[in-house]
Amino acid sequence: VGLIGPARRIVRRAAVGAGSCGFLLRDVIRAGCDFYLTGELRHHHALELQEASLTTVCLGHSHSERLILPHLARMLRRRCRGVTVILSKADRDPFTYL
Fold it and tell me: What is the pLDDT of residue 18?
């Protein structure tokens, strides 16, 4: 994960955005959020968040989406009886982190 802003703080208002959600950034800041969780950030958005002193955790695009996939597959299996739902074992994050 990537961290911007204070690592320790009291959080009274938080926002979550899947993927990059750059279009939400100014709304999150204007709403007075203390914490923002997102999957991806552009560099200039990260600088805006830093300037706003908004604690932000960026999970990485692939990681943030893959976290929910097992839950989504279970939900689809329950709600779509008769439909085969397969969670790919071949799909991987394209990055290798060193």
Answer: 77
